[in-house]
Amino acid sequence: MERRSRFEYGAQAFETLISVRPWTPIKRTIGGRHISAAGLQASYTVRTDEMLLVTVRFYETQWADVNNLITAGQADQVLTWYPDADDLATSFDVYLDSHEPGVEVEPTREDGFARVFELPLRLRGAGTSAPWTPYFQLA
To answer: The pTM is what?
Structure first.
């Protein structure tokens, strides 16, 4: 089955049994901009993050596993993400950028499938800004 993802964290793992939604790239720049009284603009960039939004789909019986994954991510634990659960040769070390501590995590039900949840996960590369870029250019 295409696009089944796998996440490993510590001695635990979570693997989707249902295909995830197509990935969505996200770019976030940390910095700012100031405009002087004369109208001149000055900006600065501290960091640019290239991230991915991965919407996992899972059965309601897998909620405990997803909850454990989120708990590990909220503790700033590096997660190993396998975009294709059947290809363990390709993986990326990532941080869970969302859902951060203090934010409610509420999956939604998939239309037409009452026992299937969807939950978007925003992943940020651990170390390099966009480690998965070459992987996605192969398709």
So the answer is: 0.84
Alpha-carbon distance 122 to 83, whole Å? Answer: 14
Residues whose CB falls within 8 Å of the CB of residue 21, separated by 6 or more in sequence, listed in order = 3, 54, 55, 57, 118
Closest CA to 59 of 114, 120, 7, 137: 114
The CA–CA distances, whole Å, from 15 to 18, 34, 62, 83, 135 equal: 9, 45, 9, 10, 20
Contact 107, 66 (CB under 8 A): yes
Of 72, 35, 29, give the one whose Cα is nearest residue 51: 29
The DSSP output letter for 136 is H
* pLDDT, tens digit, 9 for 90 and up, residues 38-82: 999 999 899 888 889 999 999 999 999 999 999 999 999 999 999
